[in-house]
């Protein structure tokens, strides 16, 4: 009953000054709209840039590294003594880069519930032969299906069909930069020499463009068996196991675990790409800062308008008090006014933010380095809407708090006697 | 033996800015139920100040105020608001109606705040009060569409809505012409005589005062006649 009365009075005061109210609400609407658009856009861009690397990077990569053993024969002798051995100039043993027993490891990994999928890979250092010139390059032997499923391989194949790697024997998808250097077209045959001197003719079935020039100039893709043939290895020769997890955050722990179990090197995505994380978090921070500033500015707008309203309504406040409204009631009335401006403006702002994001999402954005992106990226994360609306309520409440307190403290005697 | 509804016990008040000036000096008197009392005195003698203390709006004084056998001492702002709402009806020199609301809503406001009756009853009561004051036809207009005399009558209706123990007026006819003053006085008289309403009216209109049942005259912060 009492609340309804307060509501009634608040609404009447609001409507009596509906133009001011509208201006205040538009301020909130504008700031929420910009807040949401800015964050959606910024985080869309962040996702895009991160995706450039992160989508294609395995969460955990298992490989074998040529390095000297951590455990040297002398350590057997000095075990359990207080000696410490310094050994200089140790050379690694000649070893194959092959992951031993890879088939069993793959089977084991696939049965792990944390693992989304495993894609085996064979990396080969090669020379592309262009006439008499040799260009250094890397051929990745991949399983096209697994690679596409886990790392969106098809997104980066700009011409040709990635499945041809599997269907056409001795085929290759060339990096765009490498292809340009070799003047190769689809259907052409290119000569490739392995580091061991083996030469192979491969048919170009497509072009690959990652958006990172350095990679496109060097890397090409072939099927695992073609690469094995190029290296002169048997069909169980695998150099890398790329593991994608269900939860990327588990990667560091999982990597350590695998390293221990399978006795090979394992590197997680966070360690391998720490710089990206820093970049995106700083960008998000900037967009949050701008968004919050907008909201605070809107808050000051509400503060001003409420203050003005209180000066104008001094008489009304005095009379409300004289006829039995307490300071608390008056306070509630003005807080309610502030909050209704916030809620009304906020809801419009959420809709506006969604609309503006949707419009930006339609604007064409073509860049040669990002073949899959056709329009500006937008991240429609509901979190931004939640943060935006919470902030709208909080700022308007604070903006209303001080004027309301002032209103509640008005001494009716001073106002009434002053006439 | 009539019942005492309001009693002032040794009320004193001083203004401290810039130097201490006593405005009210040890004022004591009591009001009985159904009395129609006027307070007169020269400008600046403290009669309005006294009225605001008696109405509980001004709490900065010494002494004791008893309304309806309850001491107002030590009550907080919220509790005093409840007392004003329930027991005191106020009519000012200026009408102080809220222009955002219709006449009817203005009259209903204190009733809604009290929350003793259902919304429907409050509306009926408001109409009934407006009828007593002869302005029921203006109920749905906004206050700024009414004449000065009509506005003052609406303010009286608003003061009456909760059937207060006492109606206090601070120069309620001060802004009105002779004819409207006459109407307002007649209304007060009728309320006192026909409805047994207690009234305490501050005025400097000696003719108005002379027609009330009892006159309290003040001079320099003290009561010289009552």
Describe this structure in words.
Chain A: It comes from Aquirufa nivalisilvae. Chain A: Belongs to the ABC-4 integral membrane protein family. LolC/E subfamily. The complex is a heterodimer of chains A (419) and B (226). Chain A has two domains: 2-54 and 276-417, no CATH class; 60-85 and 92-270, no CATH class. Helix content of chain A is 56%, strand content 17%. Chain A contains 16 helices and ten strands. Chain A has a six-stranded mixed barrel with strand order 2-3-8-5-7-6, surrounded by four helices. The two termini of chain A are 33 Å apart. The mean pLDDT of chain A is 85. Chain B is of the alpha/beta class and 226 residues long. Chain B has helices spanning 47-54, 77-87, 103-114, 119-132, 148-160, 178-195, 206-210; strands at 4-15, 21-32, 36-41, 62-67, 70-71, 88-91, 166-170, 198-202, 214-219, 222-225. In chain B, α6 links the parallel β7 and β8. Chain B is globular and about 50 Å long. Classes of the chains: A alpha+beta (419), B alpha/beta (226). The interface between A and B is medium-sized, with 28 and 30 residues.
Topology:
The complex is a heterodimer of chains A (419) and B (226).
Chain A: H1 2-16, H2 18-54, E1 60-63, H3 73-78, H4 102-110, E2 115-130, E3 133-142, H5 144-151, E4 157-160, H6 164-167, E5 171-175, H7 176-182, E6 189-194, E7 199-208, H8 213-218, E8 219-223, H9 224-231, E9 240-245, H10 251-262, E10 265-268, H11 269-272, H12 274-312, H13 314-322, H14 327-362, H15 382-409, H16 412-417
Parallel strand pairs in A: 3-8, 5-7
Antiparallel strand pairs in A: 1-9, 1-10, 2-3, 2-6, 2-9, 4-7, 5-8, 6-7
Chain B: E1 4-15, E2 21-32, E3 36-41, H1 47-54, E4 62-67, E5 70-71, H2 77-87, E6 88-91, H3 103-114, H4 119-132, H5 148-160, E7 166-170, H6 178-195, E8 198-202, H7 206-210, E9 214-219, E10 222-225
Parallel strand pairs in B: 3-8, 3-9, 6-7, 7-8
Antiparallel strand pairs in B: 1-2, 1-4, 4-5, 9-10
Helix pairs in contact in B: 3-4, 3-5, 4-5, 5-6
């Amino acid at each position: 009953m009492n609340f309804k009365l307060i509501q009634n009075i608040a609404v009447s005061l609001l409507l009596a000054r509906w133009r001011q109210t509208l201006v205040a609400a538009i301020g909130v609407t504008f700031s929420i709209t910009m807040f949401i658009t800015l964050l959606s856009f910024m985080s869309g861009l962040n996702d895009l840039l991160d995706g450039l690397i992160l989508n294609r990077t395995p969460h955990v990569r298992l490989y074998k590294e040529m390095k000297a053993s951590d455990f040297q024969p002398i350590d057997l002798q000095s075990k359990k003594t207080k000696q410490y051995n310094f050994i200089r100039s140790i050379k690694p043993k000649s070893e194959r880069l092959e992951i031993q027993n890879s088939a069993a490891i793959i089977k084991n990994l696939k049965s792990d519930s944390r693992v989304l999928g495993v894609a085996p890979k064979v990396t080969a250092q090669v020379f592309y032969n262009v006439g008499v010139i040799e260009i250094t390059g890397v051929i990745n032997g991949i399983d096209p299906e697994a690679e596409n499923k886990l790392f969106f391989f098809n997104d980066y194949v700009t011409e040709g069909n990635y499945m041809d790697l599997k269907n056409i024997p001795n085929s290759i998808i060339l990096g765009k930069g490498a292809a340009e250097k070799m003047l190769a077209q689809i259907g052409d045959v290119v000569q490739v020499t392995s580091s061991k001197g083996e030469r192979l003719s491969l048919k170009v079935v497509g072009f690959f463009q990652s958006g990172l020039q350095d990679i496109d100039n060097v890397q090409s893709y072939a099927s695992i068996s073609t690469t094995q043939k190029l290296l002169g290895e048997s069909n169980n020769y695998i150099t890398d196991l790329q593991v994608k997890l269900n939860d990327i955050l588990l990667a560091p722990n999982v990597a350590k675990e695998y390293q221990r179990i399978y006795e090979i090197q394992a590197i997680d995505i966070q360690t391998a790409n720490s710089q990206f994380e820093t970049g995106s978090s700083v960008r998000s921070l900037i967009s949050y800062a701008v968004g919050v500033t907008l909201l605070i500015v809107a808050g000051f707008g509400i503060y001003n308008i409420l203050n003005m309203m209180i000066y104008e309504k001094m008489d009304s406040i005095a009379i409300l008090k004289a006829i039995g409204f307490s300071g608390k009631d008056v306070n509630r009335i003005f807080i309610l006014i502030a909050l209704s401006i916030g809620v009304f403006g906020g809801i419009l702002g959420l809709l506006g933010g969604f609309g503006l994001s949707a419009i930006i999402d339609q604007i064409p954005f073509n860049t040669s380095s990002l073949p899959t992106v056709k329009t500006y990226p937008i991240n429609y994360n509901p979190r931004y809407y939640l943060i935006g609306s919470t902030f709208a309520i909080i700022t308007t409440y604070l903006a209303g708090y001080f004027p309301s307190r002032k209103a509640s403290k008005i001494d009716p005697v001073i106002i009434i006697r002053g006439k | 033996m009539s019942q005492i509804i309001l009693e002032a016990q040794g009320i004193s008040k001083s203004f401290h800015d810039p130097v201490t000036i006593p405005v009210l000096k040890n004022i004591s008197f009591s009001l009985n139920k159904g009395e129609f009392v006027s307070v007169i005195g020269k400008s600046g003698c403290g009669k309005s100040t006294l009225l605001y203390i008696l109405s509980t709006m001004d709490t900065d004084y010494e002494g004791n105020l008893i309304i309806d056998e309850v001491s107002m001492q030590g009550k907080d702002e919220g509790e005093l608001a409840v007392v004003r709402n329930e027991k005191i009806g106020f009519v000012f020199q200026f009408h102080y109606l809220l222009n955002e609301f219709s006449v009817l809503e203005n009259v209903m406001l204190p009733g809604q705040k009290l929350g003793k009756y259902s919304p429907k009853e409050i509306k009926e009561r408001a109409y009934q009060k407006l009828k007593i004051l002869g302005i029921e036809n203006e109920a749905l207009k906004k206050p700024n569409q009414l004449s000065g005399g009509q506005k003052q009558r609406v303010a009286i209706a608003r003061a009456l809505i909760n059937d207060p123990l006492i109606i206090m007026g601070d120069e309620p006819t001060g802004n009105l012409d002779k004819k409207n003053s006459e109407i307002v006085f007649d209304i007060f008289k009728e309320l006192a005589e026909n409805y047994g309403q207690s009234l305490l009216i501050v005025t400097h209109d000696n003719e108005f005062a002379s027609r009330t049942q009892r006159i309290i005259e003040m001079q320099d912060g003290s009561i010289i006649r009552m």
